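User: Thanks for the earlier help. One more: Vitamin B12-dependent ribonucleotide reductase. Can you show the sequence and predicted structure together?

Assistant: Of course, both are below.
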Amino acid sequence: MTDTASEAQASAKAGAGLKIERIFSTEGVHPYDEITWERRDVVQKNWKTGETVFEQTGVEFPDFWSINASTIVTTKYFRGALGTDKREQSLKQLIDRVVNTYVASGKENGYFASEADADLFGRELTWLLVNQHFAFNSPVWFNVGTESPQQVSACFILSVDDSMDSILNWYKEEGLIFKGGSGAGLNLSRIRSSKELLKSSGGTASGPVSFMRGADASAGTIKSGGATRRAAKMVVLDVDHPDIEEFVETKAREEDKIRALRDAGFDMDLGGKDISSVQYQNANNSVRVSDEFMRAVEEGKKFGLRARTTGEVIEEIDARELFRKISVAAWECADPGLQYDDTINDWHTNPETGRITGSNPCSEYMSLDNSSCNLASLNLLKFLKDDDTFDAVRFQQACEIVFTAMDISICFADFPTEAIGETTRDYRQLGIGYANLGALLMAMGLGYDSEGGRTMAAAITSLMTGAGYKRSTELAGVVGPYAGYARNAEAHQRVMRKHQAANDAVRSINPVDRNIIDAATKVWSDVVEIGKVNGFRNAQASLLAPTGTIGFMMDCDTTGIEPDFSLVKFKKLVGGGSMQIVNQVIPRALKKMGYQAEQIEAIVAYIAEHGHVVDAPGLRQEHYEVFDTAMGKRALQPMGHVRMMAATQPFLSGAISKTVNLPETATVEDIEQVYMESWKLGLKATAIYRDNCKVGQPLADGKSESAKKDQGLSTAAPAAEAEVEPEVVEKIIEKIVYAPTRKRLPKSRVSRTTSFTVGGAEGYMTSGAHEDGELGEVFLKLGKQGSTLAGVMDAFSIAVSVGLQYGVPLETYVSKFTNLKFEPAGLTDDPDVRMAQSLMDYVFRRLALDYMSFEDRSALGIYSADERQRYLETGSYEQLGNGTTAAELVQKPAPAPKAAAAPAAEPVEAEVEEEAELVEEAPKATAHTTAELLESISGMAIDSPLCFTCGTKMRPAGSCYVCEGCGSTSGCS
């Protein structure tokens, strides 16, 4: 029995306990009896194969729960074997299983003043859950009240020392956590570097990076044996470790390997049969940087790398050069992220016990080594009143109820290792958080990247954490403070005063945030004053997690702290159908901003068709920012994400799970700016992701052009490109050309002329082929003769033609120039290429269709209209008698619209109108998730993996990805 448990029982015997006030439930009426229930059939299929992966009929849910929410809860959280009486078949059974366990443990451990208070607590908790006001993290729903170990935590931090016994124990503990479906993180900086000697033999040490290989292989093996998803793990190394440069470049070098193997014909997609040969792919990597290092970067100074055994400086490096290497590696493969050590430990409530050195896989939980955290998140949109103001009073009351339940769970919880269990019981770290912030701000008419939006988010976050700590002081007075509080009392109270000071610095922007700031100010005053007397029950109170699966359980539009993903949604219907809808908070936001019913109807109709608000009829430009989203035409700028994180970070015990997404055109300098500004603005951690930076990331069909192009060679980043391109070009020459021999075209050759229109810009393309049908020349005519544009196009055509004749494969040009984005872009008059992101994008897609075999272009995700139609009908792109060669393609007569030398203006306009209708219908036929729907509408690729369970495209959620179809995540529970 721990010291804390002993104190709890002593307090119980003294008659102490919480008095529970009725807030949400109705006296004399059970929460279940206040709502209407209905029976549903849950059938889940793999969209790619058509195979039924799950089926349970007659499950019971409230009528206001969406089909998606009931499907995910049924498939993920209902316990018992399918087809047996032990299988749960109603949401009532699931909630009762969890709530009854919490109430019973609360009674046993002296949390309640009376039996009536315990029963009322159960009713209040039930009401909040069944009405989707909050949800516990997934392990609670998986395990609590079952015969399984009562694991309630999703986040774990391990530790490893500089000994072989400790390293092998690390492998073992990590494996046990992965087997249970959770993730873990740790810091490897105590392991001596490869530049230091072993005491026993005098030989050179292996270094932490070498031991990462073994852990990575173990994670990959356990993943493939126990589940299909990748293992969730975080590996951290301090910036002053002598092996830091090797650590920084590990994953970037592996991306080069993936690229080379892919070009050689190996299957290197995520989940592909050959990807397992690549190392370090099962972990997120982060560098733990200090203020000293970041200042050295600013000032251009040297920075010392220190021996692990003695602490002496054994090497000095240029700080800016290392910072540049970190940013280049992140540009190439999204790793490593940064964790800001001094900021993290300045907000640490338990420094006398030990420093914070690591984090969980998504970087939101940061605490002592060998510890865990159980999470719960509130649905913010549920607290928006009919008058479009936020109900601060009910939100605070909900936080206190939820926080009480979370603390009770530690009393009965099981843990994967004894060390983790001991630390968690002694420090009782909790992680209350929220979801639906993006939807709330939009509904209130506040831009995500605006002062009003950031102030609202800061006020809500401050109130939430303050309410949690206030309840923690009250629990400390009832069942005693956490066991480690006495030795850390002064430090803990200092951090509470820091939170209070940060809250005092928040200034109201408009009347809607004033009551929240006032409530937060009052609650932080109570925290500081009551905490001096009672102490605190919990070392940590809050963080912001991804809320992927539980976000769907609560029918949230947005996850965690994220903005809205897109303005159009993919909604499942009863009976298995689906439909495209516009985000339901948009009409509410428009009404809040003063638009009339007719105007709202027109704007919503425009959004449904275009997926964005730019040029929407009657919408004022100053209101565009309210509807900015994570993806699409009005996508938020990277620093908009950073500023929102900075606004909320001072009010969190932990950190924030969020990736700062950058466009493919982002430069290394852009990444340096994000990392530097994140440090200056006081963030605890930052992760970035540049679109299409990972070669092994499958997109919509697993073979799209973005997945297959050489993503490391973006023209938008000259500094990084200069380091990579010469090597890649050399490999291509060695592999394909061998010698620069020119294959000239015959004097008379087969050619075709294609007229085209892209986004209203007209042009002509003439292509000529060798006798074997291989493309040998291309000429483009755009603009008036003698103009700069015409001259540039002539020069470009000659360069491409000469390259083709010297043996550069057409496939290389296609992979380089497709998906290139610039104006003019948009609708084309070509039925095979409905949308083009630029003139170059169209030209090389057309050339691929005209001169490449089906097998070669399908690997790039390029199909004709007939092939796409066949896919809709049969599930296969291939047509009968398909194996067409390039030579046969050349001999085929070109379709009439393309062969005409100068098509008349009127038929072109008619084709464009017809094409617009096709594009409008496409989402209904092909999309299976919101991510795929946005791709269909915008013509832009969403760089997300496919779900292993149901085959649909996932969408970003915090630092991972979540599937709308089945609720699966890419590593975070």
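User: Great, one quick takeaway?

Assistant: The domain at 155-346 is CATH 3.20.70.20 (Anaerobic Ribonucleotide-triphosphate Reductase Large Chain).
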